[in-house]
Amino acid sequence: MRSLTQKLTLAFLLVGLTGALLVAVLVRRYTQREFGRLILDQNQQALVVYLTRYYQTQGSWQGVDSVFRPSADDGFARGPETRWEIRRNLFSIADANGTIVLGNNPNAVGRKLSPADLRKGIPLEVDNKTVGWLLFTPALDRWRPNTPEGAFLLGVNRAIFLSALAATIIALVLGGILAYTLTSSLRELTHATHELAQGKLGYQVKVRSQDELGELAASFNQMSAELARSNELRRKMTADIAHDLRSPLSVILGYSEALNDGKLSPSPEMFATLHTEAKHLSRLVDDLKTLSLADAGELPLNYQDISPDILLKRAANAHRVQAENKGITIKLEIAPDLPRIRVDVERMAQVLDNLLSNALRFTPTGGIINLAAKKIDGQVALQVADNGVGISAENLPYIFERSFRGDKARQNLEGETGLGLAIAKSLVEAQGGSIGVQSEVEKGTTFTILLPSGERM
Question: N or C: which end of the chain has fewer CB within 10 A?
Answer without folding.
Answer: C
